[in-house]
Specification:
six-stranded mixed β-sheet, 105 residues, mainly beta
Length: 105
């Protein structure tokens, strides 16, 4: 499990700079830098429908699936970094988020 800090306050699953989901997906299959990654699990708070499964309790350690295959922390589609940071404080869509822990192999 990976410790995740997230400052994407506009995400429906963010509370106190932590992700409340049981897992997330970092995307960026051809990424060569942080800005070419994103949190594929992002869902904007204002657009989250009432019937969408909400996660409200911060989860300090969660499973991080990852398609950023050029990252040194990617191992068989999962993040193996001890901790990661997702940023995008005013994001309106997943492409406005990024994994700032990404490091190119």
């Amino acid at each position: 499990m990976t410790q995740l800090k997230c400052n994407v306050a506009t995400c429906a699953s963010n509370a106190d700079n932590c992700c409340c989901r049981p897992d997330i997906m970092v995307e960026g299959p051809e990424a060569c830098c942080c800005s070419e990654t994103c949190c594929g699990s992002f869902q904007e708070k204002d657009k989250a429908a009432g019937n969408v499964l909400r996660h409200d309790v911060p989860n300090q350690s969660l499973s991080v699936k990852c398609s950023a295959y050029n990252c040194v922390y990617n191992g068989e589609g999962a993040c193996h970094a001890e901790s990661i940071h997702v940023s995008g404080s005013s994001a309106c869509c997943d492409s406005e988020t990024e994994c700032t822990t990404f490091r190119k192999k």
